[in-house]
Specification:
- With 172 residues, the protein is an alpha+beta fold.
- The chain folds into three domains: 49 residues, Arc Repressor Mutant, subunit A (Orthogonal Bundle); 40 residues; 49 residues, no CATH class.
- It is 44% helix and 10% strand.
- The protein is built from seven helices and four strands.
- It has a four-stranded antiparallel beta sheet with strand order 1-2-3-4.
- Helix 1 packs antiparallel against helix 2 and helix 2 crosses helix 3.
- The radius of gyration is 30 Å and the shape is elongated.
- It starts with a helix and ends with a helix.
- InterPro entries: Transposase-MT_Hybrid.
- This is Mos1 transposase HTH domain-containing protein.
Length: 172
C-alpha cells in the first residue's frame, strides 16, 4: 500500500513537467524495479493526474468492508487458539460467529500459523492376563516412520491410564 502510494506521487510529479506516460513508465520501472505498478495502472493514474486530479489516495470502494483484518477478530481468534491450539477452523468459526474463510485467513496470514506434519505411531494393543493393556509399537505401518534406531517402544497402561515402562518392570 505504502509502496503504491509513493509511485502515485511519482506519477503525479511526472505529470507536472508534462512527461508522457511512456516516459513515466520508464522512470518508474528504473526507480522501483520489480515492485513497480503495472503499465496499465501507471497509464490510468497518469491520465487521472493529467485531467486535474490532485488526490493520490484511492477512492473509497463501495460494498461490504473486509472484517478479516479487524484487530478485534484477530485478537479473539488468537485468544481462543491460546486456550487450545488443536481447534479446527470450523469450530473457531462456530464459536466466534465468523465465517470459515475469514478464520482461515486470520489463522494463516495474520497469525502466521500453519499445520505441521504429524508422526502417528501405529500401536497394537494386546490385553494381558493380569488385566493390563499392552501397547506395542509395530514398525510395519505405511506412512512417515521415524528412525528410532531399534529402540523398543513398549508401554503398559493400567486402568487409571498411568504409564509404566516395561523395561523397568522386567529388571525388578
Amino acid at each position: 500500500m505504502q509502496r503504491s502510494l509513493e509511485q502515485r506521487m511519482a506519477i503525479k510529479f511526472c505529470v507536472k513537467p508534462e512527461k508522457s506516460a511512456a516516459e513515466t513508465i520508464t522512470m518508474l520501472k528504473k526507480a522501483f524495479g520489480v515492485d513497480c505498478l503495472s503499465d496499465r495502472q501507471i497509464f490510468r493514474w497518469h491520465k487521472a493526474f493529467a485531467e486535474g486530479r490532485e488526490d493520490v489516495n484511492d477512492e473509497n470502494r463501495a460494498g461490504r468492508p473486509s472484517i478479516s483484518s479487524s484487530d478485534d477478530n484477530v485478537k479473539r481468534v488468537r485468544d481462543l487458539l491460546n486456550t487450545d491450539r488443536r481447534l479446527s477452523v470450523r469450530l473457531i468459526s462456530e464459536t466466534l460467529d465468523i465465517t470459515k474463510t475469514i478464520v482461515h485467513e486470520i489463522v494463516s496470514e495474520s497469525l502466521g500459523m500453519r499445520k505441521e506434519a504429524k508422526i502417528l505411531l501405529k500401536l497394537d494393543n494386546q490385553v494381558t492376563d493380569d488385566g493390563y493393556t499392552l501397547w506395542v509399537y509395530s514398525g510395519s505401518h505405511r506412512g512417515i516412520r521415524p528412525n528410532f534406531s531399534e529402540m523398543a517402544l513398549s508401554f503398559v497402561f493400567d486402568v487409571q491410564h498411568d504409564v509404566l515402562d516395561l523395561d523397568k518392570q522386567s529388571t525388578d
